[in-house]
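HOLO CASE FILE
Compound: guanosine-5'-monophosphate
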Amino acid sequence: SALESDLRAALENKESLVLHYQPQVDRRGGLIGAEGLLRWRHPVKGIVQPDEFIPLAEASGLILALGTRVIAMACDQLAAWSRDPVTSHLALAINVSARQFRHPGFIGEVEGALARSKIDPRLLKLELTESLLLQEMDDAVQKMRALENLGVSLSLDDFGTGYSSLAYLKRLPLSQIKIDRSFVRDILVDANDATIAKTIIVLGKSLGLSVIAEGVEEPGQWRFLHDEGCDQAQGFLFGRPMPAEEFLVHVRQRS
Ligand code: G
Ligand code: G
Ligand code: MN
Ligand code: NA
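Model generated. Tokens follow.
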């Protein structure tokens, strides 16, 4: 397709693909880092959102090159943040697609990027999805251990939307689970969503994992989650995904 060849061209151009940064906060509302979300600056269409090109990249195999680029951009950003005392504590989460995770070169790629950028590996957080981990679980667990040994953190994205079971969750070397925003949206009006969110928090605690809620838009939603013991939050209430320069302004205003 035309979009596919455009994306191929974008991969050749350093300015075409950028990460936008959405704040993540702790229980006191203090900024602890960001999720890096990919944006494509298309010469004609303007900013293209990942929902429009990630599926295409998955289908065409371009996701591997895209994933490599995202890891490099994230490590570069962490290296830049590490040089300024105002930002040196910030962690950065990035999304890993199934195909990228399953690729035999993935661990080596992360290791190489960490070595090149000389960043503190603990500040890099990889977001994995349930569906990604449930297929070929033994292999996935082995890879996760290798990543854990490199020192990076692993977060389970979109938690609750897949086939989560206690049996598998306790086998996975995770440091965090992320409550999917579909449960957060109606948390104040839908008793089922409230129960699910509470249960995920208890589950996370009992397994020694930190719990982050995404899609927090209103103070009442965060108050509820906070009162139930949720450790961290992300959502429009704290900030939208923004370009690196804008994120820096946001950090400075809050520090
Ligand atoms: O802002 P938002 O529209 O950014 O993201 C939409 C979806 O795209 C999310 O599900 C997110 O996980 C995914 N996404 C965003 N950035 C990346 C990326 O760098 N790699 C992968 N694989 N998915 C991403
Ligand atoms: O699937 P993943 O969690 O990686 O995707 C993050 C997505 O959630 C991005 O598309 C991001 O723009 C979106 N997002 C982040 N915060 C909010 C929010 O408060 N409300 C809504 N509706 N979407 C959000
Ligand atoms: Mn995510
Ligand atoms: Na999610």
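CASE NOTES: Residues 20 and 243 are 5 Å apart (CA to CA). Residues 35, 95, 127, 157 surround manganese (II) ion (ligand 3) (CB under 6 Å).
CLOSED: yes
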